[in-house]
Amino acid sequence: MKLRHALPKGKSETSFSNRAAWASCAHGMNIAIIGLGYVGLPLCLQFARSGVRVLGLDIDAKKVSALNAGRSYIKHIAAAEIKKFVRAGKFSASTDFSKIGNRKSEIGNEKIDAILICVPTPLKKNRAPDLSFVLKTGKAIAPHLQRGQLVVLESTTYPGTTENELCEVLERGSKLKAGKDFHLAFSPEREDPGNPKSKVAEIPKVIGGFTPACLEAAKKVYARAVRTLVPVANCRTAEAAKLLENVFRGVNIALVNELKGVYAAMDIDIWDVIVAARTKPFGFMPFYPGPGLGGHCIPIDPFYLAWKAKQVGQETRFVELAGEINRAMPQKVIARVGKALAAQKKSLRGARILVLGLAYKANVDDDRESPSYVLMDLLKARGTKISYFDPHVPAIRKTREHAHWAGTKSVKWNRKTISSFDLVLISTAHDAINFQQLADWSKLIVDTRNVMAKCEIAPERVWKA
To answer: Which tens digits make up the pLDDT trace of 376-410?
Structure first.
């Protein structure tokens, strides 16, 4: 286990290689992880894999039942692994938050040592941070909080959330003091769904503590499951680091999205430009344009930072501009769809359009904040007849943002079905989709991912967007 320190200026970085010494500190460990989604569930399994007894908590009884029966509801997480840890007594799930205070529970005979919070942090309609899930979770666990326990927030948020809002809720509900009676820390999640090379154990873990003792407690917990730890000065620094990671991506995606239009006006293909530029072995990192941003991080986190900056009298003009550019992309894609149809003497109103790919990124079943929903809403508002195909999302589940699409099912993948549409709009390019078949079967394609460049198809049938 490597331990990297991000310390104040003037102090040196120290490395440790004695993993066994750290692991021995976590012997007989019991932890609870709240929020069993795309972040919490992989974390549960990694701790269980490392020999820790894990209690997964969630308000969704269906998720809890599925996990206790050894079933998976996330595409890239194997049911067999869940079942293995359930049978071994290393993992169980519950909706009962009082279990974090029980000395005897279904996961073992010792009290819970640490509580990790992995719940959503969305935006409100006015783009202000919505901490309701974090604060409700804090209120739920506070009455059961025990002396000596560690609470870690992993949900992405603005600097100050852990030591202010969450701390206040925990202290008020438990009558205990953070840093004195219980430990408090922030350690941002770094999940990369759909990437088979991404392993929880191998991703360096940034950790910030409310006090130095809180940091040490958090290090002992995460050392059991993660190879490299990156301690930082405090919770605020860890929160800010996570925002920087995602703002960096959002800003660079906005750059190529803007340049796509600029270069198109010069009759230059942005995709060709990126291919050429990425051959530079230093000082350049490729980012790619698309129909808009999706997922639970990049479309949201810049606005968390912008909101907090205003609270301290600062502006984030660069960050906010990048967010506006990315949010405008769906409108530009729809304009391109309209031009493609017009070239075929057709209009948007009454056209049958297939949106290809509902998930927010390739090779996952996560459709949160997906730009595909925005595209579908815009097309429907213009009178088109909308369908979608996604091999990983066979039916649309009820979501907070797009409940009106709930129950809609993916169309069948065959020549008769695909050829019946006036236009196919590629929003997400899953590896499981046969794009050569799409080229053979479809009448007209608008491609936001440049995936058709590898297929044999008449150029006039493909419009890049």
So the answer is: 999 999 999 999 999 999 999 887 778 899 999 99
258-464 under CATH 3.40.50.720, yes or no: yes
Q: With left for phi above 0 and alpha for psi between -120 and 50, is residue 160 left, alpha or beta? A: left
What long-range pairs does 174-177 form, CB within 8 A, spacing at least 24? 174/142, 174/143, 174/145, 176/145, 176/147
State pTM to two decimals: 0.89
What whole-number distance in Å separates Cα of residue 286 and Cα of residue 279? 10
Q: Would you state the structure tokens that stand for residue 396, as one six-digit string?
A: 């649309």
User: What's 2-233's CATH class?
Assistant: alpha beta
Whole-number Å distance between alpha carbons of 397 and 390: 13
Label residue 273 exposed, middle or buried (CB < 10 Å: 0-12, 13-18, 19+).
middle
- List Cα–Cα distances, 386 to 37, 177, 361, 450, in angstroms: 29, 54, 20, 22
Dihedrals phi, psi of 367, to nearest 5 degrees: -105, 15
Question: What are the structural domain ranges in the chain?
Answer: 2-233, 258-464
**Identical topology for domains 2-233 and 258-464:** yes
Measured torsion, CA atoms of residues 88, 89, 93, 94, in degrees rounded to the nearest 10:
150
Three-state SS for 270? helix
List the single range of 10-19, 142-151, 154-163, 338-347 with lowest mean pLDDT.
10-19
Q: What residues are annotated to the active site?
A: 297
Q: Which two tokens stand for residue 311?
A: 């609270």
